[in-house]
Inverse folding.
């Protein structure tokens, strides 16, 4: 948990969930912009790390999991930029930014 000190309390919940991202979102509006930016960066890193840890490729469609993860990382990085006062630009749809994850191919 030392890797993500700003979000550690929302990871590995006793409820069996890997994380409590929704709980964090409900409380994130109380953070100062710099802390919010850092926490969002940590979420992006956490989601990427969690995808790399998955060992259930045989039981789930790994490409769907990768698509979800990519969206969460993208969303988190955009939120971090916004919290730093930067303009994250227009939303780029996943099929444009990551055509390799397109489920129709």
């Amino acid at each position: 948990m030392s890797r993500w000190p700003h979000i550690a309390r929302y990871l590995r919940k006793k409820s069996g969930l890997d994380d409590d991202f929704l709980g964090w979102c409900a409380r994130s509006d109380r953070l100062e912009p710099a802390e919010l930016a850092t926490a969002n960066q940590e979420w992006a890193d956490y989601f990427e790390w969690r995808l790399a840890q998955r060992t259930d490729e045989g039981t789930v469609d790994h490409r769907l999991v990768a698509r979800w993860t990519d969206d969460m990382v993208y969303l988190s990085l955009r939120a971090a930029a916004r919290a730093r006062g930067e303009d994250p630009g227009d939303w780029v749809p996943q099929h444009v930014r990551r055509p390799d994850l397109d489920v129709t191919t």
In short: The mean pLDDT is 88. The chain has four helices and no strands. The two ends are 37 Å apart (CA to CA).
